Amino acid sequence: MIQSLAYIHPEAKIANNVVIEPFVTIYKNVVIGEGTWIGSNVTIMEGARIGKNCKIFPGAVISANPQDLKYKGEDTTCTIGDNTTIRECVTLNRGTALDKNETRIGNNCLLMAYVHVAHDCVVGNNVILANSVQLAGHITIDDHVYIAGTVAVNQFVSIGAHAMISGGSLVRKDVPPYVKAGREPLSYVGINSVGLRRRGFSDEKINEIQDIYRTIFLRKYNITQAIDIIEAEVRPTEERDEIINFIRNSNRGIMKGFLQ
Q: Is 167 assigned a catalytic role?
């Protein structure tokens, strides 16, 4: 299962049924789970923790040193969950001791060609990052997010679960859960109703989420007023509370409302 033209450091821990193609380089302090396929010319550097049944395509570089001048060579990691696909020429940097000590990609993710994920990012489960998405450091992306091609995300941004961001966008502010975001500057363009239906959300639940965001983005309240009205008038649900907590905990502030 391991080609003779691959180089694997003797201290790397490779599970059963891992396929490693020619010209792969694997450094020490690397762990690779069973059933994973590593394509040719992949470089896996110190601190990589790769789960089961992953696919890593040619040219990817996993767990490289952070592109951060404050990084001093400390031991940190880059973790990839189970059943995740990393396409050609993706670059994933490991974490720094000044933040999380880890960069983490969840389970069942797809990172398309030329994606970059910088140090200390946390990407949830079932996330799709399309071609050439660029994530700066310290970004948090929750589960079931879809980011279209050539999107650039500023450092420290958070993106809520089930959000969808249109191609070519510049993401400078936090994007709340369940929404679609687009235009320049990035703004609310509706909720991700198609994605929510695919994941089993009822029409009643989708309408509830839509009403909440109408109050936040369309009725000309400021954010504080909108949150107060939602808490007073909308019965507590998991989705309502998730939206409220996301907005209240936003450090960068959330994106703009709908722009004509």
A: no
Task: Give the domain CATH number at 93.
Answer: 2.160.10.10
Q: What is the CATH number of the domain that holds 221?
A: 1.20.1180.10
The alpha carbon torsion through 194, 197, 199, 200 (nearest 10 deg) reads 180
- Which of 92, 118, 138 is the C-terminal boundary of a domain? 138
CA dist list (Å): 21 to 12, 60, 183? 16, 13, 42
Q: Is-catalytic flag, 120?
A: yes
Q: What is the mean pLDDT of each run of 10 residues along the chain (260 residues)?
A: 93 97 98 98 98 98 96 96 98 96 98 98 98 98 98 98 98 98 94 96 97 94 95 96 97 84
From the list 137, 160, 182, 257, the catalytic residue is 137
**pTM for this one?**
0.96
Which range of residues forms the domain containing residue 23? 7-138
Instruction: Name the catalytic one among 116, 119, 138, 162.
Output: 119
Name residue, tokens 């839509």: 210
Return d(Cα 49, Cα 36) in angstroms, integer.
12
Residue 45: inside a domain, yes or no?
Answer: yes
Asked which of 101, 122, 138 is the last residue of a domain, the reply is 138
How far is CA 252 from each of CA 29, 71, 156, 157, rounded to the nearest angstrom? Answer: 35, 24, 8, 7
> Of the residues 120, 142, 143, 174, which is catalytic?
120
Q: Tell me whether residue 119 is one of the annotated catalytic residues.
A: yes
Are residues 210 and 133 both part of a single domain? no
